[in-house]
Amino acid sequence: MKRVAMTVTLLALAVPMWSGGAAAAPEGCTIEGTPGPDQLVGTGGADVICGKGGRDELRGLGGHDVLIGGENGDLLVAGVLGALLYMRYVPRIGWVARYGLAVYVSYYIGVEFTRKIPGEVMPQMARTIQPLNQWSFASLSAFLTSPSFLSLLAIVGTYSVLVYFFFSREQGPVTKRISRVGVWFLMVSFGAAFGFTVMGRVALLIGRLNFLLLDWLYPTLGI
Prior knowledge:
By secondary structure, the protein is mainly alpha-helical. Helices cover 60% and strands 6% of the residues. The protein is built from 6 helices and 5 strands; from the N terminus they run H-E-E-E-E-E-H-H-H-H-H. It has a 3-stranded parallel β-sheet with strand order 1-3-5, with no helix packed on it. A two-stranded parallel sheet has the order 2-4. The longest helix is centred in the last third of the chain and has 49 residues, at 173-221. It is extended.
């Protein structure tokens, strides 16, 4: 009974915050969103971009733009779900943390699933079914950048990595060699991703240091 009462109480608190955030857009909007989440992009001129209370992304681009997001209570719902995770430290109501964890896991699985399939899975599958009749032998650089060589490289990398992660049967002499090739592809891809991340963070650090030194510290000291 205590669990049922707690569940009913949490739903009674969450539902008004979830549904009470939508607000009508003010008059004079040139670009107007819907009550749900929108990505609103302006034109090169002066725009008045108005959201309607959803989780909107507003970008004005050029011109003198006015961005109006609208009222929204979604962050309150996220705060309640986040607070539920800490109920694990209270032994008597620790089971309540499962509700917040279930919502987070199911939401992000759904969001990432819809993004990964068209963004990563389908392009990789498309690279493995390209025709292998587009070669260029004019020079070594032309050969290495020919569409057929890149497609063949994608096929070898994809299937060797799949063989490396196939654990249903014990690997034999042939599959061990193929999985070793997959390990090299994984090392190169992870190294490139890590290097790109580090370079991006260093670029952000350099930008912040330039701002602190050139735009703030030097003018303050009169240098």
